[in-house]
Write a sequence for this structure.
């Protein structure tokens, strides 16, 4: 075979290969163009939502403005409703008692019922109950105050506020959850603060009737009969103007006279003069 013949065959082979490459490129380009055309036709306004879906849910497939709108006012934009499979015209797409915003936020399926009865965080509250309370269904202690959401519900405190009574103490460490008591006083040491216990001094007398609410005095004695507190917490039991600590007769009003000098004032000394005869016997003679 001559050199001329070989050169001719090579040129012919290259031409055939080039022709095949060109045809392949043409088919590929046509395919891409057709795919792009189909895509543009399925989402004419290029808002990321299929035209068929927009028409199905009453949106405008020829305007991209409705991408960010929220016709059902559930705080989930139309585009996010499309992406999550929700209904943009219903705040609770699957009618399971949990609004779409809640389901989308916490990764639930807003188009399928059944997850409302689950308890994802194991705190004793169903997902639907957490939706109603505004708590986090994926965290057993939403406000991080050391008290679980279900415990707060039982106690009547606020599971989304760390300090329900706003006294500066987190609920988990507060001995009076619903009554402000910054001092956390607990005189009887029963774990319940004085501000919210029915019997702060634990003396068996309920606070509303106790004349010394923070000092145990089951006898409720009150020598002066005044509403200034029982003897156990009254600094001047006999109300004679002399404080109990300095009064030689703390429960009998009178001057501090002590005739026999025995340390007991005459008003409460049965033998004032210390002669061995009681005052009553001397008075009877």
């Amino acid at each position: 075979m001559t050199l001329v013949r070989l050169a001719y065959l090579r040129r012919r082979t290259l031409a055939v290969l080039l022709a095949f490459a060109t045809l392949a490129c043409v088919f590929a380009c046509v395919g891409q163009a057709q795919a792009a055309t189909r895509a543009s036709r399925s989402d004419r306004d290029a808002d990321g939502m299929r035209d068929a879906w927009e028409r199905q849910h009453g949106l405008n497939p020829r305007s991209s403005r409705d991408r960010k709108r929220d016709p059902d006012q559930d705080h989930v934009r139309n585009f996010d409703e499309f992406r999550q499979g929700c209904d943009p015209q219903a705040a609770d797409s699957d009618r399971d008692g949990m609004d779409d915003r809640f389901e989308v936020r916490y990764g639930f399926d807003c188009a399928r019922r059944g997850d409302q009865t689950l308890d994802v965080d194991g705190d004793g509250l169903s997902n639907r109950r957490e939706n109603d309370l505004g708590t986090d269904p994926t965290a057993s202690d939403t406000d991080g105050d050391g008290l679980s959401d279900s415990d707060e519900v039982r106690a009547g405190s606020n599971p989304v506020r760390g300090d329900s009574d706003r006294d500066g103490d987190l609920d988990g460490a507060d001995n009076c959850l619903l009554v402000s008591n910054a001092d956390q006083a607990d005189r009887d040491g029963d774990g319940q603060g004085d501000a919210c216990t029915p019997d702060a001094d634990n003396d068996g007398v309920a606070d509303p009737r106790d004349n010394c609410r923070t000092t145990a005095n089951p006898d409720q004695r009150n020598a002066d009969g005044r509403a200034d507190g029982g003897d156990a917490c009254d600094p001047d039991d006999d109300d004679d103007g002399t404080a109990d600590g300095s009064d030689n007769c703390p429960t009998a009003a009178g001057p501090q006279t002590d005739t026999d000098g025995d340390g007991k004032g005459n008003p409460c000394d049965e033998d004032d003069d210390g002669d061995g005869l009681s005052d009553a016997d001397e008075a009877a003679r």
Summary: Residues 158 and 164 are 5 Å apart (CA to CA). Confidence is low (pLDDT under 50) at residues 33-39.
